């Protein structure tokens, strides 16, 4: 089993520097060998990896002659890229695109007995298991980028399906959950409630899919929640050379399994929570129906919410997502 925190322990940002890691960081960032007394100094002062990289990055020499680093962000989507060393992959999690299932698989490949029912997002975000990019040395990640055996991979979803799925989940099935309101939907409710915080009755009544689209259309892109932010925004900080469509998640699994050591190929992706496209007959327009009414139908097909004007809005707003999705659908292994 490959445990990332064992094989890469000295490259954690909060790890104490060693002579070897200090030399690697200095050479990578400054493009020259460090002097012996410099290494002795950072060891004597008990520098961490983060402290050393910060000091070098702020130095006049680095600012004028230092290497332009491949990865210099510990914020946003770039900070949450998942490293899967056993498969030599950097995976980009995208909300509402098999996110939970693949994160669970990544944990299991790292020796953690995780299940889809576990809060894998919290396990990763809190750093209980340090698979996310933000926990690792900039210099180390830059050296990995130079290795041709590593791939950057992501899954993409039909933008219509993803937006409807997000609405049905956050504004339908789980709308009354306190965490849903606190972390995801409160700004939307405030928009339709005169700027005031929504009470329980307002949340229970909910909003229609048309209103949801109106909110997205009339507010700034940078305030959108990650669950309905365009998929391309997740991919803008790295070059992804393998894109898969969510309906071809079986091909994604085969691709990862081929890259794993033989002794790990029994650890399979469990994708029971991955929503598949539904092709039910649409008998009623649900775009202006509140969740309390359409929830009686279970999981309505996306087409039930997609009137011509709403389709046009989605095609325009998520235009780059459609291009990326078509590219992902064409991926062959």
Automatic annotation (TrEMBL):
This is Sulfotransferase family protein. InterPro entries: Carb_sulfotrans_8-10, Sulfotransferase. The keyword Flavoprotein does not apply. Keywords: Glycoprotein, Golgi apparatus, Membrane, Transferase, Transmembrane, Transmembrane helix. It comes from Aquimixticola soesokkakensis. It is a single-pass type II membrane protein. Pfam families: Sulfotransfer_2 (PF03567). Its main location: Golgi. One of its GO terms (molecular function) is sulfotransferase activity. PANTHER family: CARBOHYDRATE SULFOTRANSFERASE (PTHR12137). The lineage of its organism: Bacteria, Pseudomonadati, Pseudomonadota, Alphaproteobacteria, Rhodobacterales. GO terms for biological process: carbohydrate biosynthetic process. It is found in: Golgi apparatus membrane. The keyword Membrane applies. GO terms for cellular component: membrane. It comes from the Bacteria.
